[in-house]
TrEMBL record:
This is DAGKc domain-containing protein. Pfam families: DAGK_cat. InterPro entries: ATP-NAD_kinase_N (IPR017438), Diacylglycerol_kinase_cat_dom (IPR001206), Lipid_Phosphate_FormReg (IPR050187), NAD/diacylglycerol_kinase_sf (IPR016064). SUPFAM superfamilies: NAD kinase/diacylglycerol kinase-like. It comes from Ephemerocybe angulata.
Amino acid sequence: MPLIAIYNPACGDKTGKPTFLLYVLPLLFGKGITVDRKVETTHEGHAAEAVSEFAKQHSGSAELTIVLGSGDGTLHEVLNALYFLDEVRGTKINIVLVPCGTANALFSTLFPPSTPEQVKEDSRYRMGSVHALFDGKGTTPVSLAVTELKGGAATGWGTRKTLVSAVVTSTALHAAILNTSESLREEHPGLERFKMAAQLNVKKWFKARVRLLPAPQQQAPEIYDVQSNSFIPASHEGALDLEGPFAYFLSTINVDRLEPLFLITPLAHDIPPPPGTCDIVVIRPLRDPGVWEDTPETRLGFVQRTWSAMAGAYQAGAHLKLRYGEGGQLVKEGDGQSVVEYFRCGGWEWHPEPTDDAAHLVCSDGAINRIDTGGWASCRVSTTPEDRPTFGIYVE
Ligand SMILES: Nc1ncnc2c1ncn2[C@@H]1O[C@H](COP(=O)(O)OP(=O)(O)OP(=O)(O)O)[C@@H](O)[C@H]1O
């Protein structure tokens, strides 16, 4: 089976190159596995170029293997390059994932670490996917969310850009954090840059309207009900509209976390999602009984609510229990409004208010894109993989 090994030497704490030279390539060699091409990426987009060229050369192969040393961003590049390539329609793409990035959301979901340091320091743990290849284990399918950025009146109404995500698609605070964090990468290569970026953006509210769409097998989008610990229909039929403003709007597939210990969508693990669905976490400040309007004061006052929810995600998903108590304080029990709304459905539309520039950012696995003024974004979990390649990751 054709096999390409690619590593990004610049991602995370820049250990991709020594990891491949000291561990991955010798292990493959020791097992007699032929590496048809080896690529050290030299620039953004290089991984996409390399896999596209390799796939074209091996057009017609039923399967291709990619040994990838990266974070979620380079994986995103690879998936986007191959998803749209005619030469690999119907091809099974098997990925051996070696975590070399900053957050490594997909790897740490598939291989939950016992400590956050394990992803950086435990070389046996980091080779989990490599060993799964050796052991002849099958691959776990990777679901994909397809996001279309639609133009506005000034730029034409059609689809301006299509993005494929395997981890996260978000707007609002999370997209703002990823946008800011890129400028901090050089000085702060570790996870701390996401916390610094959060500090800089947490006061913002994002003006938009959302439509949640049911998956093919759902009558309606579903919402998590903490009392019954299950998902229940969120509307009587069809789509569900959510009015903003939003503090947080984020959807995931394949993962329950965005960092080894940041479990933002923990139900993706606890209540396994049916095919064709994504998990969505929303925070809307106007659900707070103490917030009547959008003013600089209410935005400032809400900051602590958002921090509490984010802190809960770091405490094994405790944010799902947070609700507004009678005195306005946050509590973990009772029947007050939940701070976080947790949905499961087939996709969503995000319609930003044209005047709110910050609401126009869309994050797709860490890559930041901008919706045209007057435009909107449509995200759907892919349910028609027949005319596309399929992707799987080797997991122990
Ligand atoms: N040699 C290079 N120099 C600079 N950037 C590169 C190079 N090779 C690849 N890139 C880019 O580096 C970016 C970051 O990579 P990646 O997302 O995999 O790591 P990360 O951001 O550290 O980890 P994570 O996404 O898990 O937080 C990608 O957008 C990729 O295109």
